[in-house]
Amino acid sequence: QVQVAESGGGLVQAGGSLRLSCVASGTTFNSMGWFRQAPGKERAFVARFGWSGDRIYADSVKGRFTISRDSAKNTVYLQMNSLKAEDTAVYYCAGDLGTIRYWGQGTQVTVSS
């Protein structure tokens, strides 16, 4: 069964750090990345690996978030530093297989100010 599963969310104070993990199973995805959805807002792109392996970030997280991966573990990480209250959201991992995007169940990140 093809799926992705996130973990690592939680409650952190502003200025703190969290690392999210996303484990892929059942396949090797063409591309993987992270999105987030804040209350009352649409799901938004955060970071992903491009087709050539380059890292692509939303402007709002550049310099604070880092996407990385461990291919041996089929896992993608999102290191989040200098967290702000506006980073509060449900974070979703996504894996692309051809034209199909697989979503995880999401993990809540709450940043208290």
Which short descriptors sum up this protein?
single chain; mainly beta; four-stranded antiparallel beta sheet; 11 strands
Distance between the termini: 40 Å
Number of DSSP-assigned strands: 11
The description of the largest β-sheet is:
7 strands, mixed
- β-sheet strand percentage: over 45%
Query: Number of helical segments?
Result: 0
Question: What order do the helices and strands come in, and which of them pair?
Answer:
Blueprint: E1 3-7, E2 10-13, E3 18-25, E4 31-37, E5 44-49, E6 55-57, E7 65-70, E8 75-80, E9 89-97, E10 100-103, E11 107-112
Parallel strand pairs: 2-11
Antiparallel strand pairs: 1-3, 3-8, 4-5, 4-9, 5-6, 7-8, 9-10, 9-11
Short structural description:
By secondary structure, the protein is mainly beta. Helix content is 0%, strand content 57%.
Structural overview:
By secondary structure, the chain is an all-beta fold. The strands form two sheets. Strands 2, 4, 5, 6, 9, 10 and 11 form a seven-stranded mixed β-sheet that branches. A four-stranded antiparallel β-sheet has the order 1-3-8-7, with no helix packed on it. Strand 9 and strand 10 form a beta hairpin. It is globular and about 40 Å long. It starts with a strand and ends with a strand.
